Structure formats: structure tokens, C-alpha cells
Amino acid sequence: MNFSEVISKAKECIGDKCHACPVCNGRACRNVMPGPGAKGVGDTAIRNYDKWQEIRINMDTLCQGKAVDTSLSLFGKKFKAPFFAGPVGAVTLHYSDKYNDVSYNEVLVKACAENGIAAFTGDGVDAGVMQAATKAIAANKGMAVPTVKPWNIDTIKEKMALVKESDAFAVAMDVDAAGLPFLKGMNPPAGPKSTAELKAIVEAAGRPFIVKGIMTVKGALKAKEAGADGIVVSNHGGRVLDQCPATAEVLPEIVEALKGSGVKILVDGGIRTGTDVFKALAMGADAVIIARPFVTAVYGGGEEGVKAYIDKITGELEDTMSMCGAFSLTEIDADMVRVP
């Protein structure tokens, strides 16, 4: 099963909000929420995709050819490739009832672990979303990253207890979810976190902690101050606020600000191919996250669909590395891309 076949199958069952587009660029689902689209008109999601396409590759095949190694080591674990499946919660609400959060996470977490990468799992108002995610992670020896939303502190403590039971190798918090409408009406309130609040959460996690939703140097430095082990340069897929810059636009300055700090830098938002993964690494990211195409993969082919997408992205990355003279991730550098 190849990914084109996966897309065809997904169109039959993914619901009426996502169109399982051959290129997931945010245009067909703009202003669709619930669904894969955005709270506003969706211009940030579209910009995320477009800005990666403006970056070009500097091909150089005058080098000694050898086998390409795409493997990545992160937080004491080794992965086949430097990309991860992104967190998605409440799939029945956003897509269709072919899957619920239990069955979706069972497929995604297992398929990613068996094919050499890891999934970030989602969270939601329904406590069952995190329960299902952490149960799937435990069943796969902790090889995934549960992503907790910026709830009030009591709710966070409940979620962290589930994370610890799962033995996940790392945990994330998507602070960029603070703009989601369903968080604003909570009592006690959920949403933005001060540096002091974030520090307390990091210390309570008891494992490598990743802050997802960093879009400025100031935010990156706050995450570092709070003790985060990693960040994700992310605007929540362009779903929570229009008129944001693309992640590709802010990545270089954040990389520069955290140079030598030891904080791992991941990036998401509009990354759709192995060539896009290469661009992000050349610009200084340690790894990337890809979310929506993995939903298509699960709906279109289950575990086989996830494998097809992982193989597609890995193959594209290998080819790009080979054509640029980089035969390991450490050999990828800024000279291999042309950034506008």
C-alpha cells in the first residue's frame, strides 16, 4: 500500500470536514472548526505550508557516495528518522466516527513504534482522550509523547499521574492550545502559563519535558528558564490565531537564541515531505513533527497506512540528503538550503 492509495481510502471515511487532500496545505479546510481547519480564516495554516515551499535545496553531488543514515537519538532513545507524528485529540469530533480516541491511538502509537519513530498523542476536555492515549503508550513500552493541554493545575496533576503510569519517555504541553475556545470557559481557568507556573509543571513531570507552542525568542528563553528539555516551534498548526508568522520564518532566530543551551528544538506546521524535514534540520531543528497527514494515514490504511507514510517521508529525506552530500543528520548544515 502506497500513500496515494491511503489518501484514496481515507476520502471514503474521514468525514466531511477534512478532504484528505493530496497536499495538506490548509486551503480546503480553512475556517473549519471542529475539523482540521482554523479558528479564524486559516491564513496562518496556509502560510505555514507556503513558507517551507519558498526555501530551496542546494544540490551538490560532488562527494563520496555512501549509505545514508537518517537515525536520530533524543532523550536517550534512538529513532529511525527525525520526525514524529503530531498530537491529535477528539478525532470523532474533528473527523469521523470510524475511529474514536481509543482506537485511533492504539493504531497510531503502535504503528509508529513498530516503524522506528514515535507519536505525540493528544488531549481533550473528555478525560477519556488522555486515558486512551496513555494506555496505548503503556502498551508500547512508553515509546510515545503524551501532550497535555495547559489546563488548571489540578487537572494537570491528574493528567501527569496518567503520564507517569504510561512510562512515556517524555511529555509535552501544547501551550499554543491556550487559544482554543473550549479552554477559555473552564473554572478554574485554563490557558496561558507564567514562567513560574511552567517551572512547577516541568519539575512535577519527572521526565524530559517539551514545551510546544513557541513562536518567539522571548518565549524560547522563558521555556529554557522554566527548565524545559525541549521546545516545539509551533503555532498549533495555524489553528488558533490568524496573522501569525509561519514556523519556518521564526525558526532561525529561535535556534540562534538557544545555541549551546542543550534545549532540543523541534518544529511543526506545514511540513509535508521528507524534503521539508531536510530544510528544517538544515535551519537548525533537531527534529520535526507532522500531524494532519498521519490522521489521513490512520483513516486510510490503519497501521499499514501509517507505515506507508513513514516510508514515504523517510525515503524522500534519504534522497534529499544523498543529493546534497549529507549522509548522516549531523552532516546537514545551513549551506544546504537557500532561505529567502
From TrEMBL:
<feature type="binding site">
    <location>
        <position position="212"/>
    </location>
    <ligand>
        <name>FMN</name>
    </ligand>
</feature>
<feature type="domain" description="FMN hydroxy acid dehydrogenase">
    <location>
        <begin position="37"/>
        <end position="340"/>
    </location>
</feature>
<feature type="binding site">
    <location>
        <begin position="268"/>
        <end position="272"/>
    </location>
    <ligand>
        <name>FMN</name>
    </ligand>
</feature>
<feature type="binding site">
    <location>
        <position position="234"/>
    </location>
    <ligand>
        <name>FMN</name>
    </ligand>
</feature>
<dbReference type="Pfam" id="PF01070">
    <property type="entry name" value="FMN_dh"/>
</dbReference>
<keyword id="KW-0560">Oxidoreductase</keyword>
<dbReference type="GO" id="GO:0016491">
    <property type="term" value="F:oxidoreductase activity"/>
</dbReference>
<feature type="binding site">
    <location>
        <position position="236"/>
    </location>
    <ligand>
        <name>FMN</name>
    </ligand>
</feature>
<comment type="similarity">
    <text>Belongs to the FMN-dependent alpha-hydroxy acid dehydrogenase family.</text>
</comment>
<feature type="binding site">
    <location>
        <position position="239"/>
    </location>
    <ligand>
        <name>glyoxylate</name>
    </ligand>
</feature>
<dbReference type="InterPro" id="IPR012133">
    <property type="entry name" value="Alpha-hydoxy_acid_DH_FMN"/>
</dbReference>
<keyword id="KW-0285">Flavoprotein</keyword>
<dbReference type="InterPro" id="IPR037396">
    <property type="entry name" value="FMN_HAD"/>
</dbReference>
<protein>
    <recommendedName>
        <fullName>L-lactate oxidase</fullName>
    </recommendedName>
</protein>
<keyword id="KW-0288">FMN</keyword>
<feature type="active site" description="Proton acceptor">
    <location>
        <position position="236"/>
    </location>
</feature>
<dbReference type="InterPro" id="IPR013785">
    <property type="entry name" value="Aldolase_TIM"/>
</dbReference>
<dbReference type="InterPro" id="IPR000262">
    <property type="entry name" value="FMN-dep_DH"/>
</dbReference>
<dbReference type="GO" id="GO:0010181">
    <property type="term" value="F:FMN binding"/>
</dbReference>
